[in-house]
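Before relying on records like the one below, remember that each one covers exactly one chain. Contacts with other chains, cofactors or solvent are not represented anywhere in the record.
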Amino acid sequence: MNALIPDAFAQGAAAPGGFQGAPLLMMVVFIAIFYFLLIRPQQKKAREHQNLVSKLAAGDEVVTSGGILGRITEVGDTFVTLEVAEGVRIKVQRIQIGALVPKGTLKSA
């Protein structure tokens, strides 16, 4: 009955002719991209913030991470005292200082 349909035999598979480490190479490329686009800029930003916090001095005008604008009146190891209005002083953690602002900004605000 099978005279019209010849028997099919499996042929030997062709040997792969490419670089075997391609998946590993792609993984290394993705890790490198991840490092240069995400990790490295974040480390640079953290280093700059640490530098800013270590150089705080009395008389500097700053903005906290919560948006409070004030002039530093006293600098301690972990806290700074900010004068936010005439006679109104608050203590905040040093690491919560977000940025230095130019002198005179407090008067115009």
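The mean pLDDT is 88.
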